[in-house]
Recover the amino acids of this structure.
């Protein structure tokens, strides 16, 4: 069974309990890496200048402490493999729905590849953030 590296473990521990419950379940089935949990002011502004977020500090869900968002990639990481990222996103949403229905998570999850939450993939001109999962709070 896959398990998190110490680095992933440490990043996931900066996240809301629901996100920890979710990804400790996901990793039982799919190896994945936690890229980022909580983001401080310096990190948020750096992400903004790179264009990976549209939000300034402290308006991002990564800026809450504990973090209400987490960035995760299936392992081995290949950011160019869009199909695999989309497959992973759907898989995570399915696990999240099941955990919520079972009362193990308090909140629903929104995925950065389909911001409307209706399963419709975003258009290319929108900010696709396939690694991003956030709690709807
Ligand atoms: Zn994110």
């Amino acid at each position: 069974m896959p398990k998190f590296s110490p680095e992933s473990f440490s990043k996931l521990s900066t996240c809301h309990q629901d996100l920890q419950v979710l990804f400790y379940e996901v990793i039982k089935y799919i190896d994945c890496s936690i890229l980022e949990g909580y983001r401080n002011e310096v990190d948020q502004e750096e992400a903004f200048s790179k264009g990976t977020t549209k939000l300034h500090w402290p308006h991002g869900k990564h800026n809450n402490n504990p973090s209400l968002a987490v960035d995760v990639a299936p392992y081995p990481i290949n950011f160019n493999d869009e199909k695999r990222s989309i497959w992973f996103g759907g898989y995570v949403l399915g696990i999240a729905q099941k955990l919520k229905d079972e009362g193990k998570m308090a909140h629903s999850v929104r995925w950065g590849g389909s911001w409307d939450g209706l399963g419709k993939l975003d258009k290319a001109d929108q900010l696709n953030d396939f690694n991003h999962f956030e709690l709807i709070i």
